[in-house]
Amino acid sequence: MANDSMLKFVGREQSYPDKRTADERADDFCEIAQRYAVEPAEEQAGRCSQCGVPYCAVHCPLHNHIPDWLRLTAEGRLREAYELSNATSTMPEICGRICPQDRLCEGNCVIEFTGHGAVTIGAVEKFITDTAWENGWVEPLVPGKSRGQSVGVIGAGPAGLTTAEYLRGHGYDVHVYDRYDRAGGLLTYGIPGFKLEKPIVMRRVERLKAAGIVFHEGFAVGEDASLDDLRQRHDAILIATGVYKARAMDLPGGSSNGVVAALDFLVASNRKGFGDAVPAFDDGSLDAAGKDVVVIGGGDTAMDCVRTAIRQGAKSVKCLYRRDRANMPGSQREVANAEEEGVEFVWLSGPQSFDGGDTVSSVKVRKMRLGAPDASGRRAPEPDPAGDYSVNADLVIKALGFDAEDLPTLFATPELGVSRWGTVLVDGKTLMTSLDGVFAAGDIVRGASLVVWAIRDGRDVAATMHKWLKTKAANAKVAA
After folding, report:
1. Is residue 231 domain-shared with residue 261, that is, in the same domain?
2. What CATH code is carried by the domain that includes residue 285?
3. For the packed helices 262-274 and 300-311, what is the interaxial angle rounded to 10 degrees?
4. pLDDT, tens only, 240-298
5. 253 and 388 fall within a common domain
6. Same domain, 33 and 88
7. Is there a single domain that holds both residue 276 and residue 156?
């Protein structure tokens, strides 16, 4: 049966779910693509070549069993497909929406190499778990037998939530502390709804709350309690704060009104989507409506900003990036979506100053060209003698990436070991920090990265914490 339903990539063309038109989607923050109906999902899953060495799974940070759940989907065995997908990922429908599949699984699909077009893995992954939610196949998280030990998780992003889920399943009392008033981290406040609608995140959080995981929202470690305070409350701690400090851009006029950080802009927009009162949005400071907007950067955060500005009703939106299209770090799919929606990309352009006095009115731009490769192998941008020019700007959004906050100072724990970049240092095997019983995972360890890597890190650290906690309990029993 499997052979009859698979290997259809020669006679069956690649087909993604239909996208709404650019005009339709520019008016709201709903997801831009429809979901597969059952028949197209099964047909597209059946294009898989069932490789002996599945490069898609190899290049997935979670090593999802992709060919296997594609085969089950093609055969109409959707519940089994969901259960297999769920076995390696705590958030498959979220990864299906926001993973850069063109750089990971689909970009390494064998039939993509043959010119037939990759299997639409992400869209099928989204379809499988959305179908599972609709049919009641997503079962409640059942806590294991109580171990009498508790764990404190600092940060309710994907790494923290994943760790909390696994440890609760092992029977630990789990408390999650997060500075925001809603859990989810960047899933909730950093990623726009047109990529990830917020009920998708909230239903995952509610599932964890229903399992007895205690969420302390609006809780800032360092203000409401020190790290040492939490260590006294719990048998083990996980630091999974992510990286939130905007990367600096030291240019003339950088403190002018109208020059804002990407995360401030995105958080304000997402809060408005929840119906929150956001003074900085309501007074126009973080609202792009009617403005000439310039976004600086070429990563996925920059793409989120330009597409958000379009939906807010910006007069014009330009994205300045110092390299060319082929060398930008963001998803090419996101660039294409942005262009369809009316964003203008200005390649090989670097900002030199923000002009206009107290309030920005223009950006002075220097033309760039690509020189010799740098240490990473990418060609380094250098000034082009062709000269400088200016672009109008009422709102400038800096989207150059994120660095780690100064956690030793913020947490009042100077003995916490960090790298020269501020990321938390951990033992390569145990994932424990320099503090006994304090572990770390996600972006605060690896630097700004992908959600799928945060989930993988959460899965890994849950295993090492479980092992350490069992040893701690056994030693305590012996001592008693």
Report:
1. no
2. 3.50.50.60
3. 50
4. 999 999 988 889 999 999 999 999 999 999 999 999 999 999 999 999 999 999 999 99
5. yes
6. yes
7. no
* Residue 335: domain span: 248-398
Q: Which of 7-11, 101-105, 336-340 has the lowest mean pLDDT?
A: 7-11
* Domain-embedded: residue 24: yes
Provide the 10 A C-beta neighbour count for residue 322.
24
CA 397 vs. chain centroid, Å, equals 19
268 with 322, same domain: the answer is yes
* Count of helices and strands (H, E) across the chain: 20, 15
**Residue 385 contacts residue 396 (beta carbons within 8 Å):** no
- Cβ partners under 8 Å of residue 284, min gap 6: none
Nearest 5°: phi and psi at 351? -70, 145
Residues 456 and 419 both lie in one domain: yes
Asked whether the beta carbons of 126 and 89 are under 8 A apart, the reply is no
Q: Which pLDDT value is given to residue 3?
A: 54
Lookup: tokens for 55: 């490069």
Residue 216's DSSP bridge partners are 177
Residue 332 has a pLDDT of 86
Q: Which residue has the tokens 């994907």?
A: 158
Q: Could you tell me if residue 140 is inside a domain?
A: no
In a domain, 142, yes or no: no
Residue 1 confidence (pLDDT): 40
Alpha carbon 91 to its chain centroid, in Å, reads 12
User: What pairs with residue 239 in β-bridges?
Assistant: 154, 440
Classify burial at 328, counting beta carbons within 10 Å of its beta carbon; exposed 0-12, middle 13-18, buried 19 or more: buried
Q: How many CB atoms lie within 10 A of CB 432?
A: 19
* Residue 302 structure tokens: 């920059």
| Same-domain status, 417 and 389 | no
Same domain, 96 and 175: no
CATH of the domain at 59: 1.10.1060.10
- Cβ pair 193, 30 in contact under 8 A: yes
The alpha carbon dihedral of 288, 345, 96, 19 has a sign of positive
**Pairing between strand 245-246 and 402-403?**
antiparallel
- Long-range pairs, 366-370, Cβ under 8 A, ≥24: 368/322, 368/323, 370/323, 370/324, 370/327
Residue 384's region, left for phi above 0, alpha for psi from -120 to 50, else beta, is: beta
Q: How many distinct structural domains can be found in the chain?
A: 3
For residue 2, name the pLDDT band (cuts at 50, 70, 90).
very low
pLDDT over 90 at 71, yes or no: yes
Last residue in a domain, options 371, 398, 425? 398
